[in-house]
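User: Predict the structure for this protein chain, please.
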Amino acid sequence: MPLIARLIIAVVALLAAATLLASGMLQSGIGASYAQIERDAAQREARRLVNALEIEARSLGQLLLGWAHWSEMYAYAGAPTEAFRNENLTPAVLLPSDLAWVLVIAADGRLLDAVAAPSTSSPAPDLGSLQAPANPLFRALTGPIKPAESHCGVARLGAESYLVCRRPIRDTRAEQAPRGLVVLARRFDATLMRRVQAESHVSFVLVPHAAAANPELAGAPIDSAVFGSNRPLFRSSEATLEVRQPVSDLGGEVFGDLVMQLPREISALGQSSLERVRLKLFGIAALLAALLVFAIDRVLVYRLRRLSREIDTIRDKQDWSMRVSESRHDEIGRLATHANALLGVLETNMKDLEALATTDALTGVANRRAFNDRLALALRRQQRSGAGLALVMLDIDLFKPFNDRYGHAAGDHALEKVAAVMRSAAARATDLCARLGGEEFAILLEDADAAAAMNVAKHIRFTIEGLGIPHKTSPFGRLTVSLGVAIHQDGEDGETFYMRADTALYAAKEGGRNRIECARDGLAVLIESPGTNRQV
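Assistant: Here is the predicted structure, written as structure tokens:
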């Protein structure tokens, strides 16, 4: 983004921030008062909703009293019988009371009975996991009930939530010691929610607890012996105030949020007057912004645009020797001076990078990229002048076994020696010696015929063999090279020219190595090898 654009954005942003600050001060004064009144009303709604849920729990608790203070149940807990079980502990008995399941637990903690019933919308819950005494829910249900504690709470079984109540099993007169516990559970589902909604006259939904609800404010704690002590969370939008009242289970863990969407009728009255004030503030800020932008345009924009155009021209031409012309002694002039200094550094670095990009780091000869560029240039020159063009390709014989036997340091040293020999053979300014990759090299000879190319190739082969670099893995006992020579033919493109030289090199390697092959009419022809020196 241009500097001038950032300056304009900064000016506009500062003015907008000032306007928003003033608006925020108004909001914190007038608007906050209306918002507090809304939150107080929402707190009361949340309290009423929790009270309605407690009424539902007390209703289940009243039903539990009949089960827990029942002489026949008391007798059954001491001596279970099939007759009592078949008559009173079946799904059919649970359905009229809207019960999901019933547990009968002996005084020693054993689970005597676990009966589950289906509902119209879901199957009977699986109570098999409760058979294990180590089950956390089973431990919570069988733990002692302190006098100050509620008999009821919420239990999580699988993916479902249940409102549960538990009481000791006593005889009708409650004169004997308890014989275990009886637990009743009712589904904490949509049916229960509808009853609570009808009782509280509050529209709400129960959703999974959202720990990252990003509330604006938390209200005062709402204490409930059944659903724990939790703070309602408030989050407002333009039209509604969302209230999230967390509810906890028997273990004290929050399992869901009661969410209410309350209309913001009170706040709407104050907001309408605040909006009128905001419009006036933004109008003044817009006028100031326009005046400041005009001043910046007159003082800075013209010179910055000229400086930008000059830098764009240098970039487009990629001529790093050019310089910008701004020379006034102010901040923009100093910026132009620094830009010129950087251009000087860039010019030097680009020259260095160009040299590095076209040179093989190990041997110091040209790399594959430089070779490709020079080959394309040489072909264009050859097409204009009709002069000869030759390509000599070289591959060090059995170089991998050499590396494996003598080590990579010795291999690098051998590559440097070979490159030095090739540089001495390509002595003319128009000759190019290049490392194509690994142990493969090439010499591009402009204005050269077959005889000149063969002389260069022979010089390289004899000189490298004469270095006497030991190579015990080679049949020659020393480091040798294979060479392929190709002479450019009329109308031949670079790829074909290169492939003919490469084919000749391949033929030299396949023919026993330490030899030279010359490509003639697309075929590789032996020219020179150990013990042979014949012309074809």
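The radius of gyration is 47 Å.
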